[in-house]
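Work Package 3 (structural annotation) set out to generate three-dimensional models for the target panel prioritized at the project kickoff. During this period the team completed the workflow that converts sequence records into discrete structure tokens, so that structures can be stored uniformly alongside our sequence database. As a representative example, we reproduce one entry of 325 residues exactly as it appears in the project archive.
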Amino acid sequence: MTPLLEVSDLNISFPRDGAPLVPVDDVSFMVSPGELVALVGESGCGKTLTGLALPRLLPRGAVLGPRSAVRFDGTDLTRLSERELRSYRGRRIAMVFQDPMTSLNPVMRIGTQIAEAIHAHRKVSSRDARERVLALLAEVGIADPPARINAYPHQLSGGMRQRVLIAMALAGQPDLLIADEPTTALDVTVQAQILELLDRLRAARGMAVLLISHDLGIVAGRADRVLVMYAGRIVESAATAQLFAHPAHPYTRGLFASIPRLDATTTRLTPIRGTVPRPDQWPDGCRFHPRCPVAVSRCLTQRPPLELVAPDQRAACWVAQGAAT
């Protein structure tokens, strides 16, 4: 299947005195039409910056590397002008951010904000826009849309505000939805409802989803493929079932070991020792080697490529590749 999204050698840097900071380093992956791909990793590993780079919404001062390419339906978005990007942002690629209270305008009614998103991508009358707003609110599971359309964000619960953000993202009828930590700060029950909503919308609309999360638990049984990110790089890529059954990279195994399990006989979890280094302190070789329990001398000096270690599974690890000599 021809990929809908193909990211190649994505490199994001921030110039400064001395060497630049490079929080995202040579990231490559693909998303097929209708596929749900999960991008997981600890906070600070570069997941959100990667998502922002796709529609080119990076913060001021960020620089894309010269070899970076973000091909969407065959078009490299990194080569387009701001004017040309308008036909992709929101209309073909939409993003749901993790904090609805900072993403929604607190002094505008939610119906007005969704209608603005509709008018930005479609030439419709105010009456048709209102009908579309009501349909979107119903589609994302907000009860009694005519009563809610005039509500302000502070009058809604966290889960309902997140549904409003999803409705705004759907206004342009995108082919790809980037969901950046969509269940942050929500209780477990509401988290499940939001994730089930994304599943239902993906099935009904046939759109692809890039789900960015720090929680492997929420992608189990939901994602088609999982990308594991550490210190600005993809360290493992696999079909979800394969990853959960046979994680290959020591970092991925460490993530699984630190997750509570209902079927476990022990009450103690095994944490990953140490912390993710800052971008100005990336170590040489494999960036996980200071925290890795199986690191060998080669890991300290040579960067392992992301290579096949099993069918439909790649890992950037000399040990997993059987090349730790």
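Residues 5-230 form a domain with the Rossmann fold fold (CATH 3.40.50.300).
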